[in-house]
Amino acid sequence: MRQFKTESKKLLDLMINSIYTNKEIFLRELISNASDAVDKLNFKSLQDPSVKIDQGDLAIRVSFDKDARTITISDNGIGMTAEELECNLGTIAHSGSEEFKTENAEQQGSDVDIIGQFGVGFYSAFMVASHVKVVSRAYGEDVAHVWESDGLEGYTIEDGERAEHGTDVILTLRENEKLDADGEAETYDRFLTEWGLKSLIQQYSNYVRYPIQMMVSKSRQKPKPEDAGDDYKPEYEDYQELETVNSMTPIWKKRSSDVEQKDYDEFYKSTFHDFDDPARTISFHAEGTLEYDALLFVPGRAPFDLYSKDYEKGLALYSSNVLIMEKCDDLLPDYYNFVRGVVDSADVSLNISRETLQQNRQLKAIAKRVEKKITADLEDMRDNDREAYEKFFENFGRGLKYGIYSSYGMKADELADLLLFWSAKEQKMITLAEYAKGMPEDQKAIYYAAGDSRERLAKMPVVKGVLDRGYDVLLLTQDVDEFTFQAMREYVAADMPKIYEDDAAREAAEKAVADGAEPEVEDRHLELKNVATGDLDLATEDEKKEAEDATKENEDLFSAMKEALGDKVEKVAVSARLTDAPACITTEGPLSLEMEKVLQKGPEGAPDGMPKSQRVLELNAKHPVFDKLVAAQKAGDADKIKQYSGLLYDQALLVEGILPEDPVAFAAAVCNLM
């Protein structure tokens, strides 16, 4: 028996027990080796006219014997001499394929597509096999050679027989393990079934460029006997047939012009287990420092678990048509986690197990290009198929908003123009750019209201007050909406008509346009303002003067109402934003009423432990109710002021969709008033 070289025994033990995390990839590795062997012979035939082969016969065959507990992977490739068996299999981490790739680098990808690179994939067989036998006959030789090992001490190489050039790798599988303390055990029998092997081939090696063939069981109807009577019932028989079980040419490597959309749809539905066609298909090929193909899909509907903690994002990563990672999450940002698809590159640097990547820089470069492609396609859908885009946004818009919020606004430039919100004025979904285009010239902010329904928001006094002044209000109804706007702080509206500081500049610009010049445009920075917070600065000078006068005249009333409400409000003030409502609640500071409600619904939402918004009770000085308050103050009726203050405050809370702190007391106060 020959011993493995250097520290190979320790390395082999490391190979079998540590490098690979998933035992089932042994078949992927052995099929990849077989593909390399066939590729080498194919390349040799192209370089040497004396090498005569029929390319149509080149194939890989997989078979199993359940009774003998063996799996055999055969190829009719270039084969190995005794010296090559010694060099390639007797020296761990020596890669003949890597040497071949280096020597023929110029042809890689066209005439040849070598997969192997580390010289360790073969030894993954020992994860599942107690004994491995390799029978190989090199092209042009008359004698075959047999390499055998149990993966423990060493190996033997002897002469053998094989009818033609190529290699057979015969694995004798381990016995099933006994249950451990956790009630789990490795079951190697799962590899000794037609379905088990076929599914592994289609999962990991479906796009290997040569046919992978298996004898598969089928059923057919027997011929009807000539003397069969009218009561004859059809009889069936089982038979076996050699079948190619892999697709070979991946759809993402075909030209888009050669593939119909229905083919993409079928690939998407069968690969990603969806019943609906994708909403969008994005296919592209990248060249340069990194060469890769990508085929991406935007689903037609959101998966049920999209927003659950168990959902896994990521694209399938292939290298030379071999599946490396089923879901490589580094290829997608979180806000595009709904995208499904494939990226295939022979240039990415894999780690030794080919299960993860060595260079994160390469992955970042691919991910950046993928993100740009997705963004561009969504923009195209938004501009040219609005109905489809609105349906897409209904499914996945929350994730785009969260992308801005979770990045503290850093991703606003990329994502803000993809967002849609309901316009109270237009009565439809619009973008922020569309909102800006429809603004009056004097408008300096984008106004919004946040709540749980459009209908309630549209009726709120603060919303109606802004609408009455001719300004649109965006109605935000998702819990993440206002947090997104807080993270953005402002929206930069591009190519807006320029606002001139004085009439002379305006007249000069208008004359230039009349003479044929292009109208001047500018980027306008628009603040995002909640109509229920702070000072919107929408009142006219006369309205501001009236509010100031009413405040000065009724300072004692406001002090009494503040005392009656206690720490429920920061202050009581005259409102310049109300038209027909007697009162409303606004807030000061960054936390609005709606944000407070959202936070209280969260896992840390105990009422005592959450921050409170700084509430302000604003009164409409032109409303008859205000006259009642003034009269009560002049009459010195402190009880009535206290009662009215509580009623107005609780009523304003109800308008905001918030229950009074004491609903029973509120109901009793209404009854007493009646």
Walk me through this protein's architecture.
The strands form 4 sheets. This protein has a 9-stranded mixed beta sheet with strand order 1-6-5-4-7-3-2-8-9, with helices on one face. It has a 6-stranded mixed beta sheet with strand order 16-15-18-17-20-19. The protein has 674 residues and is α+β, with helices and mostly antiparallel strands. The protein has 20 helices and 23 strands. Strand 12 (315-319) and strand 13 (322-328) form a beta hairpin. The chain is 35% helix and 21% strand. Helix 7 (360-384) packs across helix 8 and helix 8 packs across helix 13 (481-488).
Secondary structure tally: strands: 23
Which strand order spans the largest sheet, edge to edge or round the barrel?
1-6-5-4-7-3-2-8-9
Low-confidence stretches: 93-98, 110-118, 352-356
Name the overall outline: elongated
Helical content stands at 25-40%
| Main beta-sheet strand count, sense and barrel state | 9 strands, mixed
Q: Treating each run of at least 4 consecutive H or I residues as one helix, how many helices?
A: 20
Query: What does the average pLDDT come to?
Result: 86
